[in-house]
Amino acid sequence: MTGHGTWKLAAFQYYLVSKPIKPTTFSLQCCNLIWTTYPSNKHPDFIHSNGEELASGFPFPPYNCSRSYLWCGCGSGSGSGSGRWEWEWVWGVNTGNGGGINGRTPSGSSVPNLNEAYTALQTWKSAITDDPLRILDNWVGSNVCSYKGVFCADPQDKMSASTGPVVAGIDLNHANLKGTLVNELSFLTDMSLIHLNSNRFSGKIPDTLRVLSSLQELDLSNNQFSGPFPRVTLYLPSLVYLDLRYNSFSGSIPEELFNKKLDAIFLNNNQFEGELPQNLGNSPASVINLANNKFSGNIPGSFGVIGSKLKEILFLNNQLTGCIPEEVGLFTEMQVLDVSYNSLMGHLPDTISCMQDVEILNFAHNKLSGVLPDLICSLRSLVNLTVSYNFFSGFSQECFKLLSGNVGFDFSLNCIPGRDMQRPQPDCSVIPGGELNCLRIPARPLVCASFTVASKNTVSSSSSP
């Protein structure tokens, strides 16, 4: 990708948790892009080699450079502070003067390859009823590669019958468009990404989109979509990033979702309900966000047994009950676990101590009880531990040390004698879930590697005929 014009930095992996780390330096050699140093109190500036300022990044999963013609380059950086900010791959698209291919207008010989794209985009334009920012004003004429928010490239598939450029992606984030998606978008079979977050699209996701075999990223967040989980997403073979958060989807979520090779699953802030699929732990995703829905029942007992590479999972603000499963300790790369604002009961499993990379643990606003153990409070990477609004009756010496350390520790509104800001005594006379039988592995000795093997063997034997 060479040429002149305004380069748009499309994405880099950036999962922000708690307070951000801001890198002080970052070097990058790709597409004539340079990521320069910047003050810690500002967002980064992305500078083209000719000095033009670029856009800043947004959450995105990592990719292999060879997988798509849109991706290029990688870099490294450093930073300091509390919290976490990760980055991996960056790609740029030179949009020239609003669209285009690497800053070029497609030649006349390539225009016939874009006839279907023209039909699709014009049909979609007619289904958009409000465009207050006049984003679509230049969606006129047959040169769809000049349309704002439409990006073209040469076909990724070298065996493709196309001899010229194809529509490779649509990015209309924050365009405030009102309308619906149309079946004809399925004509854009070479697309690798669709980014439509922060608009006012409504209705359902067309089932015809299942033919988009090259689609890797689908971001429909912060819109007004409704109806059941869009099963069409299950038939997209290349999909690795799925973002449906902040919509009005409802009903249950299919178990097939967690068998897909997704890196990021964002379903938070919808109206999903029902029990979580038992194969939740099968997902290879590094981030799963199920917060602010109406999920009920237990966290699946198989959770974590597969040994997932999951780094962040959020269950907060649902209607989950029962115990926190012992298998949660198998997520040895977990960095964020948030189960707050549910109705979970029983003791915290000692296997949480196997999560040596965990930074954020939030158990607030549940019905958990017992004594908070040393094993959890002595986690080496812990940045914040929140157990407020439960029924814990005490905490150990290691937990006491957190009060004078650098770890955020909130244990208010529990039943801990001699501590300030606890529940009134009558509230502590009957502990919720006192008769709940949660499997407990003895606290000492707990050998995490042995626990992992034993848990996997248990699952294997239980699944044998």
From TrEMBL:
It comes from the Eukaryota. GO terms for cellular component: membrane. It holds the Pfam family LRRNT_2. Keywords: Cell wall, Cell wall biogenesis/degradation, Glycoprotein, Hydroxylation, Leucine-rich repeat, Membrane, Repeat, Secreted, Signal, Transmembrane, Transmembrane helix. GO terms for biological process: cell wall organization. Residues 115-152 form the Leucine-rich repeat-containing N-terminal plant-type domain. This is Cell wall hydroxyproline-rich glycoprotein. It comes from Quillaja saponaria (Soap bark tree).
